[in-house]
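Q: How would the structure tokens look for this protein?
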Amino acid sequence: MNEIPYGKMSSNGLSRRRMLLMTLGASGTAAAGVYAWRHLGLRAKLFNPFTKTEFRLEPVEGVLSNGGIPVPGFAAEDLKGQVVILNHWASWCPPCVAEHPTLVELAKDRRIHMFGANFKDKPENAAKFLREHGNPFVRVGADRSGFLASTFGARGVPFTSVINRKGEVVTTWSGPLDNDSLTRVIRPAIELALKG
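A: Here is the predicted structure in token form.
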């Protein structure tokens, strides 16, 4: 095989420089696809983070429902048998504050159950946050060490998962939810979870 000097034409009429740029372009497109799959909630396959992990999150002290009843924590088994939106959040997190009205609006969909995993927060601050901003959650557990967040693959908060009736995660969203992410990712995943 003859070596083609850099910049010279190959047998098919393309310079080595052009072939290199085409290869880099294809690699960049593939990398963008992987990023979208991993970080924008575009999962092609269901997964269950509890295959080998069971957990129980205690309730966050002082968190009450809109009717004034203490909101319970939750365990792995509570994520099965219903479609659950699990949101990892904290009162000290500005993006969590920004997304909260979106969660309150999403919770109006009675086909789903909103669970909150309160991430490394003080219970009094979490309770005050939900009193002031509204409580969209039917269950709120204290993830004091961040164990549950890491089990789901969250690298920070907010982080949201759509979970089907089998306890499988259909999709995830890292960062604050807004109308765009609801339309493009979360609501289609909810419909998929309801069908499955």
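The longest helix spans residues 16-39.

Confidence is low (pLDDT under 50) at residues 1-12, 26-45.

Upvote if useful.
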